[in-house]
Amino acid sequence: MAAEKPNVTPMMAQFLEIKSRHRDALLFYRMGDFYEMFFDDAIAAAEALDIALTKRGKHAGDDIPMCGVPVHAAEGYFHTLIRKGFRVAVCEQLESPAEAKKRGAKSVVKRDVVRLVTPGTLTEDSLLEARRHNFLAAYAEVREEGALAWVDISTGAFHVMPCPLVRLAPELARLAPSELIVSEGSAANWAELVPDFEASTTPLSRSSFDSTSAKKRLQDLFQVSSLDAYATFGLAEISAMGAIIDYLEITQKGKLPLVRPPHRENIGGAMQIDAATRRNLEITHALSGGREDSLIAAMDRTLTAAGGRLLERRLSSPSRDVNLIHQRLDAVEFAVSNRQVSEALREVLRKVPDMERSLSRLGLERAGPRDLTAIRNGLSQALEVSKSLSSIDIPELFEQNISLLQGHGATIDLLDRALVAEPPLLARDGGFVAEGYSAELDECRTLRDQGRGVIASLQTQYAEQTGIQSLKIKHNNVLGYFIETTAAHADKMLSAPLNESFIHRQTTANQVRFTTLELSELETKIHNAGGRALEIEKHIFTELSQAVLTQAPHIAEASKSLAEIDLTTSLADLALHENWARPNVDSGRAFDIQGGRHPVVERALRKQGNSQFVANDCDLTDGKDGAAIWLLTGPNMAGKSTFLRQNALIALIAQMGSFVPATSAHIGIVSQLFSRVGASDDLARGRSTFMVEMVETAAILNQADDRALVILDEIGRGTATYDGLSIAWATLEHLHDVNKSRALFATHYHEMTALSDKLEGADNATVSVKEWDGDVIFLHEVIKGKADRSYGVQVAKLAGLPSLVVDRARIVLEALEKGQSETKTSPKAVIDDLPLFSATPAPLPTKVETRPSIVNEKLAEILPDELTPREALQLLYELKSLAET
């Protein structure tokens, strides 16, 4: 940007000064009804938003690039810019042009940045997904101790946990924050540490992470003398939390959101799931992108936005606390057993708005009347929910929440009296305060809307008072409102005692005009009624907002309780309609699934109208302290990968506190869930498909403990046959002997099935198939035993490979199998004997002319729609007779 010159206009000088303080953001400079951008900001914004780039004046002899967007549509443009990696500094007018002119005719309206819009600081519904959190996270290291803190300012949720650097990537994968704050003095290579982290990384000064300043910042925010009331926090945790609060003060310009007291999480409190496993299992996002075809899409039957966000949190962080899991399962079982109560609750929950986000906007002074009605309606429904549960025996989880739904009568009554049923979006539009709440407002509205009627009423009063029926009250631009009568009646108007009430204004040829103090005051009120009414409504809005904010902690707890009940009843609804069963979860090492199903695949089959999902059993319970591993063989397309994934998902679903898609399930707590399924590369970092596979496998073998559940699919397939077999063999032995994990290991290396005789905790299983007339039929049934072949040639035929290729593949396969089984020679020797390159390709099949059979000729003549049942039966006899001849 060019340096400022002496001939710069005052307005442009103001822009350049403000821009110098926000160099890393696009400056949205308010000018009336538009936000305008200049110089490089205009060029970048015009390209990103696909809007016209114009010019406005000159600077240093060059045209100044300019573009602009309407203020009323700014949120949509914010969303586009944030999605494309920009930050926005919103610069507002702090006074009106009239106020600026009081300082001088050429004075520039005062402006300043009132907010920085960044990915982690969004609060508007139009910029957020209702059923997803929008986390702002911060990572801090103090004296070789690490901590991660995160907040969703749209709901107020604030969390922190100790987190060594090696655990950062898995935790970020769990939280999926949109923005990560780090110390600008950190030596960590964040791009390398969090490769799967799709969010912006924001460096903040080291002073923001100073633990002493951070502690003071937190104490001031929560108005406490010590943080010990919340938990015992380490220095790194205090540093991370303090950095978040400092960043919020910077971006919100002192208007801090309603952040709840911090909740400290234990790093061992949730099932550990790394980024690769989350991606492979498609927990919250499908591999194809988006939410559809993911686990959460198959399970989400919540009716509230807060309930949807809670479901995502539970699926992302399955618990390892057996007692807590049982509490949640008891609540779901209650909702399943009391179906009528559950359905009544769900009818009430349908009407519950998003109180959490409305509260946050009220705290940041970005709310509108509809946020107040959301609080009113939400608390009213909370009262209905508590009434529905108060007269019956309810589980412990519901008991913990029922009291939080009560005690809001005063707030409900205040908002009910003050607000109309359907208010406008913005407070500046007015019309949201109910009639009868404010006498002054009602008077102003009457004057504004019924001014003529009020004047007519006053005219009648004066006519009766003077006895002059021809008296009129009129209006013009010079005198305003005035009383007019004929010259013949003028003396009567000025006679005692009326002469003290009526004041002479003007005499014309035939009329005399008067006024009164009452009429002058009324005129002023009518003239100012509209503006005054709006001022009164804005004042009432502020009063109501403050009244709500004083109850914010209690309202937030009510919203949290409603979300819990919503999630519980939605899981019960899912269990009832999808035939899911309550799992038995304990602290042992059992893993026995009977009739297990993959919820996403089952849902997809139903939508497609295909055959029902084939349920399968899986028993990894060995009754000892050693490993329990199934070595799964069988053809491609038979369902091995589905079987692996469904058992991992069943464990995850059980530990989040839900019924599971199975006939029965006995699951000992799974501490870690690891998945190495599918093929992918990372070319940006120079990693081939095989390298990615090995990196993910190494992570599993280096971390998995004896409580882990591991699913591995086709380890070693990305390299030469013997290399791959060796790696797969050694991996399985390590899982068995060192990790001692529960595992499902799918492979096409049939040689590995011999390991079941060597390893005590290993067992063979296969996916059964049948062959028919050279084709393979998949039964999708997992049974004990081992496969003797992979049916790859048959699958290739199903995929549509040319028949020449399929036939040639069969010849080569038979030669290889025969060579190894009969002569015990190596595959290389067999291949050397095959005339792979010298053989003449088989000729293309020639078309043979065949005459249609008599039966086919007869069938071609038939028109089924024209046949009666008797004719059809007779025809069937004729066709059978023809076929026999």
Please supply descriptive tags for the structure shown above.
885 residues; alpha/beta; MutS, DNA mismatch repair protein, domain I; Nucleotidyltransferase, domain 5; MutS, DNA mismatch repair protein, Chain A, domain 3; 6 domains; 7-stranded mixed β-sheet; 32 helices; 45% helix; 18% strand; DNA_mmatch_repair_MutS_con_dom; DNA-binding
Question: What does the model show?
Answer:
The chain is α/β, with parallel strands linked by helices. The chain has six domains: 10-117, DNA repair protein MutS, domain I (MutS, DNA mismatch repair protein, domain I, 3-Layer(aba) Sandwich); 129-267, Nucleotidyltransferase, domain 5, CATH 3.30.420; 301-408 and 551-571, Orthogonal Bundle (MutS, DNA mismatch repair protein, Chain A, domain 3), CATH 1.10.1420.10; 439-536, MutS, DNA mismatch repair protein, Chain A, domain 3, CATH 1.10.1420.10; 584-796, 3-Layer(aba) Sandwich (Rossmann fold); 854-884, no CATH class. It has 32 helices and 27 strands. It has a seven-stranded mixed beta sheet, sandwiched between helices. Strand 1 and strand 2 form a beta hairpin. Helix 13 (339-349) packs antiparallel against helix 15. The termini are far apart. InterPro entries: DNA_mismatch_repair_MutS, DNA_mismatch_repair_MutS-lik_N, DNA_mismatch_repair_MutS/MSH, DNA_mismatch_repair_MutS_C, DNA_mismatch_repair_MutS_clamp, DNA_mismatch_repair_MutS_core, DNA_mismatch_repair_MutS_N, DNA_mismatch_repair_MutS_sf. Residues 708-724 form the DNA mismatch repair proteins mutS family domain. Belongs to the DNA mismatch repair MutS family.
